[in-house]
Specification:
2 helices, mainly alpha
């Protein structure tokens, strides 16, 4: 997250509040993706034999 914030701060002349907003949005998107993957795999047999 820190690396992404540094890249964005170099590319975009934004204030610190804008960077914090982007970080928060990114964390919520990541959490939503994790929950979506967990719900999609509910009921599947993900044991080593599956792979």
């Amino acid at each position: 997250m820190a690396a992404i914030a540094r890249v964005l701060s170099r590319r975009l002349p934004a204030s610190q509040a804008d960077i914090e907003t982007l970080k928060t949005i990114g964390m919520f998107c990541g959490a939503g993706l994790l929950v979506s993957l967990m719900l999609a795999s509910y009921g599947l047999d993900l044991s080593p034999g599956f792979f």
